[in-house]
């Protein structure tokens, strides 16, 4: 693993623990020699995370749509700031650059990006690890929902196992590094069976 894509909010939330988690993740990425790929923004959790990596001498690759860059929301001091046409190109570019994915606390955009990358893994479009950095228990309710979806038969357990979770940056990165795509023969069989229904 050389580059980690981090999805996170354009706000910092109501608790100091969230920004603290972004700073800690930034420090750990640099300590482990990992480049950051992120949404290119200078505000909120994105800005906190990216500036921490830069301050510690790490590499930061931002990917931002033209419309947001025109609003002067881009982190221009990033090691590399790629300006792309739209959100679709942004997500595809970030996914292509990264070897793994982490979601920090965030809102609709963060959730949408993480669930899309998990859906791509579910469909065997990539084999890269993805996980939630569950700072201050922010994702507890979301994790319960995912478990509920599994219990109710909308997620197979092999698909549920695609989502890694940890409360610490070190712990989550260790899980990303150790990740092996779970029982993909089973996953592929499930997909084929559903398509044939």
Describe it for me?
It is built from nine helices and seven strands. The protein is α/β, with parallel strands linked by helices and 197 residues long. It has a single domain (3-196), classed as Rossmann fold. A seven-stranded parallel β-sheet has the order 4-3-2-1-5-6-7, sandwiched between helices. Helix 1 (16-31) links the parallel strand 1 and strand 2 (35-38). The chain is globular. The relative contact order is 0.15. The model has no long low-confidence stretch (mean pLDDT 93).
**What is the averaged pLDDT score?**
93
Number of structural domains = 1
CA radius of gyration: 17 Å
Regions with little confidence, pLDDT below 50 for 5+ residues: none
| Oligomer state of the chains in this structure | single chain
Task: Give the CATH architecture.
Answer: 3-Layer(aba) Sandwich
Name the descriptors.
single chain, 9 helices, 197 residues, Rossmann fold, alpha/beta, 50% helix, 7-stranded parallel beta sheet, 7 strands
Topology readout:
Layout lengths: L2 E5 L8 H16 L3 E4 L5 H12 L4 E6 H5 L9 E5 L2 H11 L2 E4 L4 H15 L7 E4 L6 H12 L5 H4 L2 E4 L2 H10 L5 H13 L1
Parallel strand pairs: 1-2, 1-5, 2-3, 3-4, 5-6, 6-7
Helix pairs in contact: 1-2
Q: How would you summarize this macromolecular structure in one to three sentences?
A:
The chain has 197 residues and is of the alpha/beta class. Strand 2, helix 2 and strand 3 form a beta-alpha-beta unit.
């Amino acid at each position: 693993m050389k580059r980690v894509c981090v999805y996170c909010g354009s706000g910092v939330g109501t608790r100091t623990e969230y920004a603290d988690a972004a700073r800690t993740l930034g420090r750990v990425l640099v300590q482990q020699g990992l480049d950051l790929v992120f949404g290119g923004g200078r505000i909120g959790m994105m800005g906190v995370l990216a500036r921490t990596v830069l301050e510690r001498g790490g590499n930061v690759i931002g990917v931002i749509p033209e419309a947001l860059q025109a609003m002067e929301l881009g982190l221009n001091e990033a090691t590399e700031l790629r300006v792309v046409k739209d959100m679709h190109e942004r997500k595809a570019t970030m996914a292509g650059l990264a070897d793994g994915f982490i979601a920090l606390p965030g809102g609709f955009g963060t959730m949408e990006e993480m669930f899309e990358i998990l859906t791509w893994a579910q469909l065997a479009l990539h084999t890269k690890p993805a996980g939630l950095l569950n700072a201050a228990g922010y994702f507890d309710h979301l994790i319960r929902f995912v478990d509920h979806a599994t219990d109710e038969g909308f997620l197979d357990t092999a698909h549920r196992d695609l989502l890694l979770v940890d409360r610490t940056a070190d712990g989550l990165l260790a899980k990303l590094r150790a990740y092996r795509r779970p029982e993909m023969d089973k996953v592929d069989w499930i997909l084929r069976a559903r398509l044939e229904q």
